[in-house]
Amino acid sequence: MSVTKDGDTGRWMSQIRVTDWTGKTIHKKKRGFATKKEALQWERDFISQSTGSLGMTFGDFISLYVKDMEHRLKPSTVASKKWLIDLKVTPFFKKIPLNKIKPTHVRQWQNSLTSYRDESGKPYSQTYLKCINNQLTAIFNYAVKYYGLKENPCHKAGSMGKKHADEMLFWTRQEFQTFIEVMKDRPASYAVFMTLYFTGIREGELLALTPSDIDFEKKTLTVNKSYQRLGREDIITTPKTPKSNRTIPIPDGLCTCLQEYMSHCYGLQKDDRLFPYTKSFLYHEIDREVLCFFYPEYSHNKNLLPFPPGYKARSLRS
User: Do residues 144 and 179 share a domain?
Assistant: First the structure.
């Protein structure tokens, strides 16, 4: 280890050579520290992370955890996992050494989340709380299994939230007919929501559909991939689970709808995305029309904000 000061800039620089937890020798140099103390702290953090020391901070450990997951999970799954960790987990635990996190810390973290209320006074849903808690538990399980952490503090702290969601609101057939009727002047949206309603497929599965997935003779739709937009990149992966690969029978009305839609798609190839949109497009379309139908006073101004108190888009599944 070597910490030196640049006489010209007055800034500190650190040079370090360590053997990481895989046995690989790493040489690292970093400039621009305002004080010697900052340079030395950076060295200590780097050594802890590189050697896999349980004395590393939770924030440093998360960097190792995510890097490992990137080799084992789908990009969309890693992105979702990292987003949740960065937003709801790391801010609380970031600076605490991994081996110093106790069940009491976990309980304090849980209490901060269960007591949260948004501007309308609404808490996080029970299933969302459960999802966040499961993520922290998985992180500590990983530390126990691969880094020798003595025990998972989440086990003693207990859980929060509920595994199963409260009863969902489903559209009646009449509500859907009312909704879809006004979509007829927008062929793409009409075809999108007809397909979602009559097949029950996931949004990502819908957005990954190609003409080759639809067999009009057998009247079937095949699901074998999923779409995700990560940053500025379109990514096609396998479906969420192996059982998600399936072939779904489709009614005559949907066959006619899709044939009509595809006939107007200029230059459409068999492996092109049938609906070249993102999930935000779906949310925008459904919110715009649902808002007007269930809250008629908004029909004269579809851009009126905020939405009415208690407004929540309903599930499209029949």
Answer: no
Going from the C-alpha of 219 to that of each of 24, 247, 251, 253, 255, the distances in angstroms are 57, 10, 7, 10, 7
In Å, what is the CA distance from 73 to each residue of 15, 68, 253? 34, 9, 38
19 φ, ψ to 5°?
-100, 120
Query: Is there a contact between 291 and 201 (Cβ–Cβ < 8 Å)?
Result: no
The domain in which residue 240 lies consists of: 173-298
| Averaged pLDDT of the chain | 82
Q: What Cα–Cα distance (Å) separates residue 140 from each residue in 54, 65, 95, 159?
A: 11, 10, 16, 14
Give the CATH number of the domain where residue 83 resides: 1.10.150.130
d(CA 205, CA 217): 21
Q: What is the pLDDT of residues 225-256, one digit of tens each?
A: 999 887 788 888 888 778 889 999 999 999 99
Looking up tokens 């939230």, which residue turns up?
Answer: 161
Q: 62 pLDDT band (50/70/90 cuts)?
A: very high
Q: Residue 312 is which amino acid?
A: K
